[in-house]
């Protein structure tokens, strides 16, 4: 059986796009990257907020920190926007401690934090244990 001419690849007849649908599509295309970058930054800030709650021993905050850290690790492995936000935050931290007026102890603490975070991220990278991710499979969310 041959497909009829003009049919879409999914086998459905072509649909006419509405002006409102076109406007929504353009809006999403225009603001998607900026929105996802903002969301990634807010997710990072929320993690620090939860960490602060745990440090001051707010009730239930330790379990929340564990759960949100697991969620954030999954987001990091799935989202190029979260990865970019982490890279940007790391670069800002590097620039701050590179300043000559920064005490050596602060530089050492920053390096230790980066190393511990990198080790934790590597240890929790599920792709290491299941044979790796296929190239091009990562979603940008």
Write a brief caption for the model.
Helix content is 70%, strand content 0%. By secondary structure, the chain is mainly alpha-helical.
Give a structural overview.
It is a single chain. 70% of the residues lie in helices and 0% in strands. By secondary structure, it is an all-alpha fold.
Instruction: Bin the strand percentage.
Output: under 5%
- Spatial separation of the terminal alpha carbons: 39 Å
Q: Could you estimate the helical fraction of the residues in percent?
A: over 70%
| Radius of gyration, whole Å | 22 Å
Q: Give the H and E element order.
A: HHHHH
Largest sheet: none
Helix/strand structural class: mainly alpha
Average pLDDT figure: 81
Low-confidence parts: none
Quaternary structure state of the chains depicted:
single chain
Overall morphology: elongated
Which key phrases capture this entry?
141 residues, 0% strand, single chain, mainly alpha
Helices and strands, with pairings:
Layout: H1 19-55, H2 61-78, H3 80-98, H4 104-123, H5 126-130
Helix pairs in contact: 1-2, 1-3, 2-3, 3-4
């Amino acid at each position: 059986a041959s497909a009829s001419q003009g049919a879409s690849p999914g086998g459905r007849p072509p649909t006419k796009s509405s002006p409102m649908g076109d406007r929504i599509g353009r809006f999403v295309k225009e603001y998607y990257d900026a929105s996802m970058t903002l969301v990634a930054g807010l997710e990072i800030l929320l993690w620090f907020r939860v960490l602060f709650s745990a440090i001051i021993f707010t009730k239930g905050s330790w379990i929340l920190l564990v759960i949100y850290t697991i969620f954030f690790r999954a987001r990091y492995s799935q989202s190029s926007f979260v990865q970019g936000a982490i890279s940007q935050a790391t670069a800002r931290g590097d620039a701050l401690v590179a300043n000559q007026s920064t005490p050596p102890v602060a530089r050492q603490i920053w390096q230790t934090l980066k190393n511990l975070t990198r080790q934790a991220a590597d240890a929790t990278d599920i792709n290491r244990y299941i044979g790796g991710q296929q190239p091009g499979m990562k979603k940008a969310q």
